[in-house]
Amino acid sequence: MQSSSLKLAVMQPYFFPYAGYFQLIMEADTFVFYDDVNFITGGWINRNRILIDGEAKYLTIPCRKVSQNKLINKIDHDLDDKKRAKLLNKVKSAYGNAPCFKRVFPVFEEVIGSECSSIAGLAMLSITKVTDYLGMCQNFKISSHSYDNRDLRGSDRILDICKQEGASVYVNPAGGWELYSKTEFGKYDIELQFLRPELTEYGQFKNSFVPGLSILDVLMFNPRRAALKILKKYTVV
Fold first, then answer.
1. Are strands 234-236 and 191-197 parallel, antiparallel or unpaired?
2. Which of the 8 DSSP states describes residue 11?
């Protein structure tokens, strides 16, 4: 068996992702931003959903020359002052009356106002600013900076990252059941685990609860301690 008990997770950088993403960060000792894999159009890299008038609506970062044949870290966002102002107003309109708006909005404002030019950088910043806000102490790494293994694909590349980190456990979202095999990971003395989020209900004004929205929604309605309590509700199998 590996001498280390390090638990590793690897995910593409998403823009202010939902609570389950942060539960994966919470569970891992080292979290790797998988920024040098192909961009997913219609995915969560440059957008997420927020609550507007009781319904889930997209909050999208415009990008230049989007293609699934390009790496995430090779695509720039297309924000200018006008588009930034529009996004800020959209969030302000949606959550201006939320109990934690005054504390959380500056986090969103700082990310949107960043000088970072790539969507990968902007998405990673959105995640690290949230973990800073919540006081989550995590070890982040960026795949394009750390592993030099783009010749590998699929589980072979994930396994190589685990080996380079000396990880004995790899934790993946439950949706990865069909992608990865516990038997395959076990051949290298790496335990494969899957995280199942519990999307706890909380008050969203007077609306019926809408689950699975951006972490922004959780934070707008819940103080830090309550938000962390929500994030701690998950199971690993």
1. antiparallel
2. E
Contact (Cβ atoms closer than 8 angstroms) between residue 27 and residue 171: yes
Q: Which residues contact 112 (CB under 8 A, 6 or more apart)?
A: 79, 84, 87, 88
Q: Which pLDDT band, with edges at 50, 70 and 90, does 59 fall under?
A: very high
What does each C-alpha distance from 205 to 23, 70, 93, 96, 232 come to in angstroms?
A: 24, 40, 13, 11, 23
| Residue boundaries of the structural domains of the chain | 7-236
pTM score of the predicted model = 0.95
Instruction: Report the C-alpha gap between 40 and 190 in whole angstroms.
Output: 28
Q: Distance between CA atoms of 87 and 81, rounded to whole angstroms?
A: 10
pLDDT in tens, 110-150: 999 999 999 999 999 999 999 999 999 789 999 999 999 99
- Residue 79 CA: distances (Å) to CA of 118, 132, 202: 10, 24, 32
For residue 2, what pLDDT is reported? Answer: 43
Q: What are the two backbone dihedrals, phi and then psi, of residue 123, each rounded to the nearest 5 degrees? A: -65, -45
Q: Tens of pLDDT along 5-17?
A: 899 999 999 999 9
Interatomic CA distance for residues 112 and 5, integer angstroms: 37
- 138: helix, strand or coil: coil
